[in-house]
Amino acid sequence: RKSRGRRSAGLAWTKRNISWKVKTYPQEAWLSRETIRVLMHYALKVWSEATPLTFHEVGGPRADISVEFLHLDHQDGYPFDGPGGMVAHAFFPRDPQRAGHVHFDSDEDWTFRSPDDYGTDLFAVAVHEFGHSLGLAHSPSKRSIMRPYYQGPVGDPLQYQLQADDCVDIQRLYGSRVLHSTEKPESSSLLPDPPSLPHDFPALRSEEFPDRCSSSIDAVAQIRGETFFFKGQYFWRLTHGRHLTSLRPALSAAFWRGLPRSLGKVDTVYERHTDHRILFFSGPLYWVFKDNGVEEGYPRPVTDFGLPQGGVDAAFSWPHDRKTYFFKGGLQWSYDEATGRMDEGSPTHTALGGQLPTPVDDMLSGSDGEVYVFKGRQYWKLERHSLKLEIGYPRSIARDWLDCTGELYPPLSAPTSPPTRAKLQPDWRGPQLEVERCVCPS
Amino acid sequence: RSVPTPADESGEVVAWLMQYGYLPPADPITGQLQTWEAVTSAIRVMQRFAGIPETGIPDDATLGLIRMPRCSLPDVLPEKLPERKNGRLWRKR
């Protein structure tokens, strides 16, 4: 989590929706202003195709990325040198004064679709420079667009795609678009693709699904290293790198085949360490899933575990001692997955009692044995072996896990009446676009 | 004293190596010339980064790259310059 904070302060943009504009054009140029703007659009598109970033052109004075064609010494520490030599430069996101500034030498013969040996291909150089604007340094790889030497045109802007090295490098900073989109997950993902929705399935309307920045959470689970947050009939999914795969939640019953569509909420979910089955608990019933398909014969009553008929609040399977702990109110049960039996003496008064408000909403054991406790819109972290409360908690689930960087509604400390959805839903379209003129770039 | 770099012969190379981060800028206080050893190892680093034979001398392949149009950002990003105590350069091991 901390590294995320550091990342945003250093090498990468924290926002995903980045504005750009061409601030000045070369005095004499072969290329028209429209062509220059279109080429910039496509050069940025190259990077947005590999990441969750989106770029939009603005007409007003303020833009995150501003492109200028400048001459010789232009007072930024990197004077140009006339035709040839230095052709362009751009500054990293961490540069306090110059982040987003992209400068092209106006003395170059900027070309588009010209013979390789004539002029300097503007699209190729622009892709390179925008790589710097997003945080990439020069690369020694001969195939990389981030190689410092101009190597001629890179082909048709409409067809151009990043080399693998460059994809890896930029996704290290921003994650990949596939994992952050609601499009089909990559075939390499551990859990198979969700089935297509049956025709009678209720369509997803934006006013229906919960807002991740203001909701409490019903259940949390780490499954195959990915973290799932369940709320009502939906869930959000975070990648291994803890990047939210989509701002919009997915319908649980559409992904977890066999989970009833009518299920209002899930009490707890965990991945069983013995056979990596995934167990869902809701009220008096539980389901066992192999990957994301339910096994034959489920649901079954939770009394199979020796649990009370009413079900549980929370559970987590602890790799540390390979037991699963169930919680209900102020009681806890410890269940030995290997023998399939509840431990002698269960239930006991929960050890959490003194440290945390009970009942909790859910608990999660992290990959290196730490345990997180979730209640309402806050969470606590327990030390690995001692399960003692770590200092600095509770913290906000929305801010630390679900990518809500803005003001949280309502503020965590002051419980207020739930605000209207309109107020809750942040405006993802970015700043108001002041349009001077529209050009259709494709 | 180390042999000073024959500036007339390779001023362009030294300037280029400093421009792109392979050599620290010349010391403005002492005006100390870049030693040839430093230039040689800087050329090797540049040749390695460019994927050409590491000869340590400004041969044709190296000069060809040095004169090639390119992005003006350094290849070697400025790190924390070595600390300076009582006038001597202390390099971290």
List keywords for this structure.
heterodimer; A: 442 residues; alpha+beta; five-stranded antiparallel beta sheet; 7 helices; 24% strand; elongated; disordered N terminus; B: 93 residues; 3 helices; 3 strands; disordered C terminus
Number of strands of chain A: 25
End-to-end gap of chain A = 39 Å
Gross morphology of chain A: elongated
Per DSSP, the total helix count of chain B is: 3
Helix content of chain B: 25-40%
Oligomer class? heterodimer
Could you characterize the architecture of this molecule?
The complex is a heterodimer of chains A (442) and B (93). Chain A is of the alpha+beta class and 442 residues long. Chain A has helices at 2-9, 33-48, 122-133, 164-174, 252-255, 397-400, 421-424, and strands spanning 17-22, 54-57, 65-70, 86-90, 101-105, 110-111, 120-121, 219-223, 226-231, 234-238, 250-251, 268-271, 278-282, 285-290, 293-294, 300-301, 314-318, 323-328, 331-336, 341-342, 348-349, 362-365, 371-375, 378-382, 395-396. In chain A, the strands form 6 sheets. Chain A has a 5-stranded mixed β-sheet, covered by helices on one side. In chain A, strand 1 (17-22), helix 2 and strand 2 form a beta-alpha-beta unit. Chain A is elongated. Mean pLDDT of chain A is 81; it is low at 1-10, 181-204 and 414-429. Chain B has 93 residues and is mainly alpha-helical. Chain B starts with 6 loop residues before the first helix and ends with a strand. Chain B is globular and about 35 Å long. Mean pLDDT of chain B is 76; it is low at 1-9 and 80-93. Chain B has 3 helices and 3 strands. Chain B has helices spanning 7-19, 36-50, 60-66, and strands spanning 70-71, 84-85, 88-89. Classes of the chains: A alpha+beta (442), B mainly alpha (93). The A-B interface holds A 78, 80, 84-90, 108, 120, 125, 128-129, 132, 137-138, 140, 142, 148-150 and B 20, 48-51, 65, 67-75, 77. Strand 4 (86-90) of chain A pairs parallel with strand 1 of chain B.
